[in-house]
Specification:
By secondary structure, the protein is α/β, with parallel strands linked by helices. The chain is 40% helix and 16% strand. The chain has one domain: TIM Barrel (Alpha-Beta Barrel), CATH 3.20.20.70. It is an enzyme of class 5 (isomerase).
Length: 250
Amino acid sequence: MAQRRKLAAGNWKMHGFQPDLGQVRALADAHPAPNCDVLICPPATLISRMSDALSANPIQVGGQNCAPQSSGAHTGEISAGMLADAGATYVILGHSERRADQAETDAMVCAKASAVSAAGLIPVICVGETLEDRAAGRTLQVVGTQLAGSVPDTSQGGSIVVAYEPVWAIGTGEVATTDQIAEVHDAIRALLIERLGPTAQETRLLYGGSVKPGNAAEIFATSNVDGALVGGASLKASDFGAIIEALDAS
Ligand code: 13P
């Protein structure tokens, strides 16, 4: 089986001002993680300053969205190349909050993922079912459809990350059970192998949804879980640091 380097990713969502960079400096100072990659995706306004603050540290910085176009008359949009110019190396795409609030479709996520890869960055493509989907027994169908529509045909398995984030577990304190996580992650791996071939063994699959210091180790011991996409708990160095340490030791 391919060796996949684990990834702890923080999604700051629409939180964070310049003084919050202190949390990132504290994280860099207090929580070295030799065995895994660490990524923080702040609001676009902080990407450049955060990457400057981390210049001597392996912690990576990412965006939370980008335009599908590389440049042009698109007021208010930011291209993948611009995120790279600001210091980003990853971009979260298709988060359920954007799928809901900005009506992002699988086709839009796919176009953005292609743009991100073309700019030399790594897309973190998010998928996940609602509570209604799960109650109706269509979790694997929904996740499979999102995956099929959101991952570009030209993707190399090692150059994309997929995050499974059940919508009902985001920001709710309710975590999927390890059986539920394993079922979906195993299915995602199988679908990616069918789609992309053997390189899909190199795709890192992250779980996201109320990951905290207290549940991280159990989640990281689950089949086909290569790390986490962390929201609320990534805002505090002590909490995110504890999650990183659990991943580093897994
Ligand atoms: P929480 O960790 O706050 O539940 O958020 C998860 C998430 O949406 C990360 O992208």
